[in-house]
Design a protein that fits this description.
about 250 residues, 5-stranded parallel beta sheet, 4-stranded parallel beta sheet, 11 strands
């Protein structure tokens, strides 16, 4: 088990290199000595309240040397020099993969829980996610419906994205034609308005405040067609709370 040799002397030390990693370590090892990223309590962090009072460090080699972590968890954070030094000195580096469906999220939960030495907690967290997905699933009487996901910056998400999995989990077909993330023009929305919109990241009022998604034409087209507004905190990380986004979508629709 990770940290078995040091657990008798001191708590396990875990360093998170980005906001997504913060969520995983707060959920799975709140009992460890944590060094969280500077964004751990930002408004778009799912567990921002749990981050209150926790140590924050910049994801730098200097900070890692000072903290002396046993395990480092990352999604995208950490520059190559830092990661190479950590691995060379025997620190376990656990990387959260960019999951595009809920099977991928389950794999991430298992990998991080194993890396932190708490596989049973990972199983419990995955089970909680699966229970949320069951609650979010549409009933047999639910009519077929489609929606276009749109961010304030004017992007949508097609097949091969976790957003697509969220839409399907709540019983929606994805109106985006292409795969992955792609921009949607104001003109296209005006000429070919979707039946419904699922808006994401619009709660971040200072983000993309002049983005295509906030254009007056888009606002007019979307009036009366918004199935749900999903908060940024549920969309910023390939994690268990993507299931909560599906539940929010079902409840709002």
């Amino acid at each position: 088990m990770v940290g078995a040799g040091v657990a008798e002397a001191r708590p396990l030390r875990v360093m998170a290199l980005d906001q997504c990693a913060d969520q995983y370590v707060l959920a799975l090892r709140p009992d460890a000595e944590l060094a969280l990223s500077p964004r751990a309590d930002d408004p778009d962090a799912w567990l921002r309240e749990a981050a209150a009072g926790r140590r924050r460090v910049r994801p730098t080699l200097e900070a890692a040397i000072a903290f002396r972590p046993d395990v480092v968890v990352r999604y995208w954070g950490g520059e190559p020099r830092l990661l190479a030094r950590l691995e060379a000195t025997g620190v376990r580096v656990v990387t959260i993969a960019d999951a595009t469906d809920f099977n991928g999220v389950r794999a991430d939960i298992r990998a991080v829980a194993q890396g932190l030495g708490v596989p049973a907690r990972g199983q419990a967290l995955a089970a909680r996610m699966d229970a949320t997905l069951r609650d979010a699933a549409p009933g047999p009487e639910t009519p077929e419906r489609s929606a276009l996901y749109l961010t304030a910056g004017g992007f949508t998400a097609g097949k091969g994205t976790l957003v697509d999995a969220i839409l399907k989990a709540a019983g929606f077909s994805n109106a985006a034609r292409g795969p992955f993330f792609a921009p949607v023009s104001v003109e296209r929305i005006a000429l070919f308005p979707p039946a419904r919109f699922v808006l994401g990241f619009f709660d971040q009022t200072r983000s993309d405040w002049r983005g295509p998604g906030r254009h007056p034409v888009v606002r007019r087209v979307a009036k009366g067609r918004v199935a749900a507004r999903l908060p940024a905190e549920a969309l910023t990380c390939p994690a268990w709370f993507a299931a909560d986004a599906a539940a929010m979508l079902k409840a709002a629709a």
